[in-house]
Amino acid sequence: MILPSYYEFCCRVKTISGQKALEKIPGALARMNSFRPMIITDKGVSGAGLIKLVSGAVGKKVKIGAIYDDVPADSDYKVVNAIAKIYRSKGCDSIIVVGGGSPIDTAKGVNILVSLGGNNLLDYCGSGSVKQKLKPLIAVPTTSGTGSEMTLVAVIADKDRNIKMAFPSYFLLPDIAVLDPRMTKTLPPFLTAPTGMDAFTHACEAYIGLAKNPLSDTSALQAIQLVSQNLLKVVKNPNDLNGRLALANASALAGLSFSNSMVGLVHNLGHATGGVCHVPHGACMSIFLPYGLEYNFHKVGDLIGDLLYPIAGAEVFAETPKKARPEKAVACIRQLNQDLHDATGGRHFRNLKEITDRSGKQLVPKETLPLIAKTAIGDGSKVYNTEEITYDDALMVLEHAYEGIPLNRKLIKKGGKGQKF
Amino acid sequence: MNINKYPEIKPGVKYIKKIYIAVMLFIVGRAMQAASRIDKTIKKEFEDLPDGFTFSLGILPNGPYMIVGKNEKGKVKYMGWNPAGKKLDLKMGIKNMEVAFLVFSFQESTTVAFAHDRFIVDGDLTNALAIVRVLDLVEVYLLPKIITKLAVKRYPKWSELSPVRKHINRILIYVRTFTV
Which of A306, A339, B10, B41 has the most Cβ atoms closer than 10 angstroms to its Cβ? Predict the structure, then answer.
């Protein structure tokens, strides 16, 4: 275990996990002196009947001020501005967000505006802008991936500039996260797979990230183990409620972990690809994760080797020589991607070339790679990657990920071996 | 109740460290101005920033600071040490003097300092990263390799910055930093 010379760790999200967890929300709201929440969600969630479930559990005891169910797939600052107006006009006093990463990030953005004032979220850019307690926020995740219910950052897009902006602040941590397996039960396998890999990526990157610490390590390893043991099982049997709850917990643990140790190359390229080509975040994470690990072998190979234990189990870990563990861990992740690809009938993507939208249109044409690389070097995640990432490095990794071939490690420019934490 | 038994504690001032950091910030600020006219990469980074862009880098809460920005002609200028009255698009601050001294005396690399949450960035993060890239290159020019390697994640390879170009630019930047 690595004990850094200095670290900071914070988690103050009350977590309510289990069957019938939703029914605890009215009491939790009352304890925060809130009686008129606004529900924020997206069309997919409301269409799946999940808002009825939440309203049924909450609405008997609490008057819901407003329901906004039109959050787009990529949270956008203009939508945040619009929802804040509705919140104010309806006299709401708290937010219940039901959904995946996009609604939760949107709700965090809304909470900034309704708590601190103003009409434009862009006025709060930068890491030091949110400096005080915000309105009560309860997050009910409906995907097991983003971990946004445990994170201090809101990632919100500026579609005019084709970028995703990060708003980090401890005050953006939701007050309460409610993990109820009924909320993820209806998530189809082709979405369960990438969202599960998203949580997996958070945990892996947290474990090798520059700001890692013993507390974030503990939750990262637990999250990796839960995903490894349950993801494929749940994709094959979506009604497995215990598996669903395990993945919801994995997502929360991974969120808790990366929120305190930050993420690196995988998210750097993922944010850029999402920003430029509007590719779902989970798909990017699944594809870039093996590359993100390979790129950092020379710096944190031993740590990547450690990941083999929660990924493959004690026996495989013990029978693999120490030197071979990093390679083996990456091979296991590629195999997991392949298994998910097979289990979803090819709807879980293994490389950038394969990513298509519903109409079958390729979302990441090869000619967009230079623009993605350019966008990546302006993304904050690069700061926490152990190896430097320049435009050329990003493009090199993108070209490998496009074809789906293992990274040619001779092409990596190495800034020394090992990493001081 | 004798209120004098409960004295107010006023923050002290660490003069030597403050002077050391102020000098370092002055040199780095002037060097950024000089390097923006000599190094093509730095010039391009500044060209990509918005017109009139101005930023500060300093020690919280009371300085010292350095202010650098683009003037109306798009030229990069060192604008002194006092942020008062200036419209700043980006404020980068190190949380306290002790930490700043660790960073500026190269006992803690910029990378590790970020990981240890020593910095506060107020403004657009994309622009902040551009400034960090410029600062890294300025360090490469100002300092010997053995020290710069302590500060940056990866010292530029020959393919990225040839030794000839590096040494010529280094001389020119030093000359401009202390003369023009």
Answer: A306
